[in-house]
Design goal:
mainly alpha; about 0% strand
């Protein structure tokens, strides 16, 4: 019963930190704390933790979609066109998410972008889950960091220049996603539905 209670506590915390858009510790650090302090089963912890982190990221993506529909009317057309472009290349999206999620880089910006562009989350989550199941298990199993408390786990986010830099980089990538003229750029690419480049509605001088 005690093991089950600690697992549920770990999964709940992992879910919550993955819903928050920024400045949260990596899921594997939370898993490492519970693994070291309470001697929980490694694979049960990491595989369940990867599932919960993906569910949290899905909520984050849905929230980003709601935010775009409610407050980003001036950029909605550009973001929708980017989403259609990515959906036409869904296999590449899944592979890219898989490779990115194998790294220790934060994935909050990835899911915020997925929500804002309204790309199909099936391939995004498939790539994320399969990668995090591998990566989280590796990081927890091989870590030489000893986390004595959850305060220490969360303190790593704010006490490390690297951690802060990664978070700021993620925020910058979302700002670029919002401000860049995606519709103008994507008209240069052929659409997979008709095999021809999309035509601009403007007149040629």
């Amino acid at each position: 019963m005690e093991t089950a209670a600690y697992l549920l506590a770990a999964f709940a915390l992992i879910f919550v930190i993955n819903v928050v858009p920024a400045f949260m510790p990596a899921s594997w650090m939370v898993m490492a704390f519970f693994y070291i302090q309470f001697d929980l089963p490694l694979l049960l912890l990491t595989l369940g933790g990867a599932l919960c982190s993906g569910l949290g990221r899905m909520v984050l993506a849905r929230g980003s979609r709601w935010l775009k529909r409610g407050y980003m009317h001036d950029r909605r057309a550009d973001l929708d066109e980017l989403g259609r472009f990515l959906d036409e290349r869904r296999h590449a999206v899944g592979s890219t998410v898989f490779l990115y999620s194998l790294s220790p880089l934060p994935t909050n910006n990835l899911f915020i972008a997925a929500g804002m562009t309204e790309v199909n989350l099936v391939w995004v989550l498939a790539g994320f889950w399969s990668a995090r199941a591998i990566a989280d298990t590796f990081w927890v199993w091989t870590t030489d960091q000893v986390f004595d408390s959850l305060t220490q786990v969360f303190g790593n986010v704010y006490g490390s220049w690297f951690g802060i830099a990664f978070q700021l980089l993620g925020i910058t990538s979302i700002a670029l996603l919002y401000f860049l003229p995606w519709a103008k750029w994507l008209r240069r690419f052929p659409s997979k539905t008709n095999g021809a480049p999309a035509q601009s509605s403007g007149h040629t001088n």
